Amino acid sequence: MLASIIQTEAQLHNLLPQQRLEGSVPTDLLDAAREWSQLVWDMAERLGPMPLSKKQVEDGLNLAARPVFICGVHRGGTTLVRNLLDGHPQLCVLPSEGTFYTNLEAKLKQLPADN
């Protein structure tokens, strides 16, 4: 199954555009992404959860107890700060969410007005 994942990932990589897509995503790219995702998910389910030592669990809980959120404006240097922090061996940096405020605005507009 691992060979299948690697082969599918290579096919997906070859379909990825070199520049940002304008308009709709090609069907073959979406199909390849879905196939790769399903193969990875199936493998993860087959392998089950990764066993963690007591120390690993304690370290994870300690990290989660003190989160740091980096917020800023477009082109304000937040990506640089995130990348610098990601290079630190004692930090765990999650994927960035670049559309939080854009999505939040639409959600806020759906809420009933305050009386």
UniProtKB/TrEMBL annotation:
<protein>
    <recommendedName>
        <fullName>Sulfotransferase</fullName>
    </recommendedName>
</protein>
<dbReference type="InterPro" id="IPR027417">
    <property type="entry name" value="P-loop_NTPase"/>
</dbReference>
<dbReference type="Pfam" id="PF13469">
    <property type="entry name" value="Sulfotransfer_3"/>
</dbReference>
